[in-house]
Task: structure prediction
Amino acid sequence: MKGWTGYILRINLTNKTWKKEAFTEEFAEKWVGGRGFAAKILFDELKPGIDPLGPENKLVVALGPISGIPAPNTGKAVVAAKSPLTGFYGDGNLGTHVSSQLRKAGYDAMIVEGVADRPTLLYIEDDKVEFQSAEEVWGKGTYATNDWIYAKYPKSTGVLNIGPAGENKVLYAIIRSMEGRAGGRPGIGAVMGSKMLKAIVVKGTKQIPQERADEMRQLGIDGLKKARELDQKSGWSKQSTNAVLAWCNEVNGLPVQNMRKTSHAEASKVDGERLNDARVTTYGCPNCTMHCGITIEDKEGHESELDYENIGMLGPNINVFDLKQVGSLNYLCDDYGLDTISAGSVLGFYADAIERGAVEGDFKFGDAEKGKALLGQIARREGKAGNILADGTLRAARAFGKNSIDYAMQVKGLEVAAYNCKSIPGQALANGVAVIGGHHREAWIITFELKFSKRESYGPEKAAKVIELQRIRGGLFELLVACRFPWVEVGYELTNYPKFFNACTGLNWTLDDFWKAADRGYALIKLHYLREFPNATRKDDYPPAVWFDKANADAEGPQKGVVLEYDKYDSLLQHYYDQRGYDKRGIPTKELLAKLGLEQEAAETEKYARLS
Amino acid sequence: MKITVKLIGPLIYEGGFSEKTLTLPRPMTAGELSAHVKIDRKRPTIITRNGRAVANSDTLADGDRVVISHIYSGG
Result:
């Protein structure tokens, strides 16, 4: 078997043991890597109903067949577990040298089981695993932890680590790497914390197996050159993802005041131009051709790395329009190891709930200083408010009551990203059917629905576009484990990726083969969901109620009075299910599961829930 | 005819301005305006007028606010 190392490293923290397990060629070709590997491993090994923060949960770090090989933006890893935030399979990806180092160590994935008896750093070097003490940095932020690790190991080693939020099991704690990268929005950092696992450090010294290594080397060199040229020509890196902020503001899609409003007169104070003006430097992931992490000096003088999602959610969404203050809020999230999207959503929700009288408190929209204090309380689970808000908007809404769940901006427990979709039905659908909960990664169709469809349409073309993008963004790129930006932002051809894959593996796949593998992965994650929630309904695929609420419509501007319509949204959802081959609950039918080769997984699911 | 043009992201550096009000010598379509402000159309763009997308062939009216952007993925 070429292209894959053919091995998974299984580590047990309770017993301090590890073993190298071979996987079959059939497994490799069926699940490809990354999200596919993680979803399959966790489906087979986790019993439904286990406590996500208990010893039975497992942390999976999974790579793909092009991970770590010099080619455009292949320096990423998928981290996954049963999510404590959503209660079913959750994952995320982040840029890290783990992508190359773990593969050079001889593994395509790593499974971490059990719980350590003290704060632990796992050091992996080829066939050796060491369980080192991390007591010295337990309680420390991710920056200090990185410094501590880099004092012992070179920066080229692969590092994953958590901050106090992960240690204290904040349900939206993330995993960090390389001082600026973060992944695992659905609380994968909390799973790591629950295992007393502060950090993972990986070094490999072997060659990554490739079927046609010379061809891949040339494809990689050409690809890196081309993708860099495209970025330089486009000028994308000048503002990176934050170019979107000004555009969202212009088309009434910006999250303002917990998504009550869709634009703001002061949005230009935190837009891409201001970010570029304030730039200190720029960071990217390994093998990156278009660095997206622009750093600025925050209010306290720290270097804070910003992009659109964290500016949108920690800025306009809580009515903060001072870029330095947004930088400070972002820096604290990064240091505590909090997901910036969920953290911004939680702060916005809390201010909203106070303003609407659902709960008493002294946090108001626009109060950045109080916001900073709250982030610390959340990360430490300090006080009543800190502890409740550490559980995310869905659980906080259940605690506050008074219909606050209507404006908890989440789907399946995961907070939606920085797009206000009350007059953007296709993107609302993309959030509703994002397979791990409200996530923008799976599909982003706003420009499509404005340019190529009609904004107010709830037609099948929007469902088709969501599926097309899910197959690419949540499928191809999450299976191969590479960053989507060269393709989606600067036009690097998608057809290059099967070429990379084929050179590495010796197979002869086309994009259609990837779409089938992507559909298989999506279907399996839906089975994860059904096993955990046997009474699942199509209502689970609805976006937050406030997007349907006329009282929340824009009071002025081109989208004045417009909100989502329940009947129409439901018909759009049905288009999606019909095109996917899902039943009326949004669950893959047995017929589809058989077509995707998931008969065994279907039979396993039927022990817990009904399939159609 | 006066039109306010707002450019997004890298187009600002390509067009040489972020936002300005132009006095046009004659009525123009959205596509003509894009060429008028020297936007390279090799990469796909989306043009909105008063917050709603328009086709390149749509004629602009006095007082319109036009926003020109590349098509993004949303981070």
